[in-house]
Amino acid sequence: xxxxxxxxxxxxxxxxxxxxxxxxxxxxxxxxxxxxxxxxxxxxxxxxxxxxxxxxxxxxxxxxxxxxxxxxxxxxxxxxxxxxxxxxxxxxxxxxxxxxxxxxxxxxxxxxxxxxxxxxxxxxxxxxxxxxxxxxxxxxxxxxxxxxxxxxxxxxxxxxxxxxxxxxxxxxxxxxxxxxxxxxxxxxxxxxxxxxxxxxxxxxxxxxxxxxxxxxxxxxxxxxxxxxxxxxxxxxxxxxxxxxxxxxxxxxxxxxxxxxxxxxxxxxxxxxxxxxxxxxxxxxxxxxxxxxxxxxxxxxxxxxxxxxxxxxxxxxxxxxxxxxxxxxxxxxxxxxxxxxxxxxxxxxxxxxxxxxxxxxxxxxxxxxxxxxxxxxxxxxxxxxxxxxxxxxxxxxxxxxxxxxxxxxxxxxxxxxxxxxxxxxxxxxxxxxxxxxxxxxxxxxxxxxxxxxxxxxxxxxxxxxx
Length: 465
Hints:
There is one protein chain. By secondary structure, the chain is of the alpha+beta class. About 25% of the residues lie in helices and about 20% in strands. It is built from 13 helices and 22 strands. Strands 1, 2, 15, 16, 17, 20, 21 and 22 form an eight-stranded mixed sheet that branches. α8 runs antiparallel to α10. The model is unreliable at about 5-35 (pLDDT under 50).
């Protein structure tokens, strides 16, 4: 599936599933008369926080989950998923699946139009799928879901009916069409597809792009000609704020309407009566987890014994209690405890620095020159770890890990990078280790993350497992 990279997977021996706390600004100022909260109000502007700036508005070429946030307003997928993760109509108002599971016939909503006023056609669906399948597009988040797409038998029956063919049946294929945000061929078929469409958006969603100011904001406006049920909010503004403290202050001042907050902020402020009178705190678990990505192409980290020894240096219980204030859960694989694929009988890697030192000694890593750093063949045991800037909890985790490893003779350099820059380096494989996160899809299929065919630029196996 097309996992969403954020705060980005690895053969992770450390994983945390973190509860999110989201304060929401009271839409009614204290000086105005009270209204029924259940009555939608037409108009107004919603200010949303975006933790990391997007890399592109082209929905085929998304690199992280942040690219998807504005796209959810600008584009319409072939199918939506409801709150129970069941398929429901999107651009396609109905569909049929052949008995052998190889043919999917979609009937498009004949009222659907793009933001330039042109109708959405079956040919646009085929064009979009062809771009997904084209290696030059580098559709890393989607291509793994359409590995068995058969373009030679994919065809338009008429302007509003398209048959999508596959070489092999996949039980979960239908929900993967939620990743297909259809784009118009007459716009995206011009120029260099990979590079010329990063700052435009012509989609069939309820909003249109007004402007994007890189590093600052993305402004969307409700379409007057939207073909579906029109939303009530007139304007949506994404404010790029990478620092959690800055975002928290912006929420308290009313400059943004919602944000994820750090665990220490939640612990400190969630019962503050001066805030709870106009802010709502909500805690929930998502299909996501944090992890350490070990680059298997790095000679030092290519040995699984090394990766395991490093994982044994992580004080998991202390991280959960001291850094996340009990709002995180330890995990033992690439699935969250809420997914049916999760195996609760798999034991977590135990914090055992002495055991880690014995493992390293067995591999030949000893402090032969007595400088406090293990070495082998004259080379010190040293590596760098990329950390996303802007989160105090992330910084604290990095520093704690650095201290733990230093105690047994491992030299870890922390590289604090702005989010977009960090993602670019990691997707290019230009790193040794990184502290990151994944937003998962409803289908717990790790193919796109770990299969050998999915190494960059083809897919998201950027740990090269």
